[in-house]
Write a structure and sequence with these properties.
Layout (H helix, E strand, L loop, with lengths): L1 E5 L2 E5 L1 H47 L6 H10 L1 H23 L3 H24 L5 H23 L1 H5 L5 H6 L7
Antiparallel strand pairs: 1-2
Helix pairs in contact: 1-3, 2-3, 3-5, 4-5
């Protein structure tokens, strides 16, 4: 036993009593450290999730397609981003199909310009309306970027290169064909 002097009193403690107090203090501090580590991990996970959502949102606002893994994440964790991604994918597919129906490079260009003018007018209308949100204009901007990306991809493709510069009807009459 050890005798410990505190003030004017002698306290007698066995080595096992001292050891059990040290272990108790150590266990409590380990629990506190574990709690703090858990909080840090949870905070980091929330930030990672927020950053991932933000990155997906930025990608969609730039008219970019999401990867399969990103779509899966959005479907499970961000339904609003998932629905926006599906909407953009449908628009992308419809625009590609309409480009493939064009019979000349000039038709492709006119089709693109018509689509862009429609979106520009819609954006101007949304801007002029009272109470219209920046989300509406931002969505139209994303559509413009999407169309521009798809148009540029098509123009670089072999399918575009094989098209004549102008359709025969357009050459003969000085007009474009009416089927765009």
């Amino acid at each position: 036993m050890n005798d410990i002097v505190t003030g004017s009193k002698f306290i007698t403690q066995s080595p096992t009593d001292i050891y059990s107090e040290v272990v108790l203090v150590k266990d409590e501090s380990d629990d506190e450290i574990t709690r703090q580590q858990t909080k840090i991990v949870q905070f980091a996970q929330k930030n990672i999730a927020a950053n991932r959502r933000s990155n997906l949102s930025i990608k969609l606002s730039n008219g970019k397609a999401l990867t399969a893994a990103e779509l899966q994440y959005a479907r499970q964790n961000a339904p609003e981003l998932y629905s926006e991604a599906l909407k953009q994918e449908r628009m992308r597919r419809v625009y590609k199909q309409s480009l493939q129906q064009c019979r000349s490079q000039q038709e492709v260009q006119c089709h693109y310009e018509r689509k862009m003018n429609t979106l520009i007018q819609a954006a101007a209308h949304a801007n002029s309306r009272q109470g219209s949100s920046n989300l509406q204009v931002g969505g139209l901007t994303a559509e413009m970027k999407l169309l521009t990306d798809e148009h540029q991809k098509f123009v670089r493709s072999n399918a575009y290169q094989k098209l004549p510069a102008r359709t025969k009807i357009a050459r003969d009459k000085g007009l474009l064909s009416k089927r765009i």
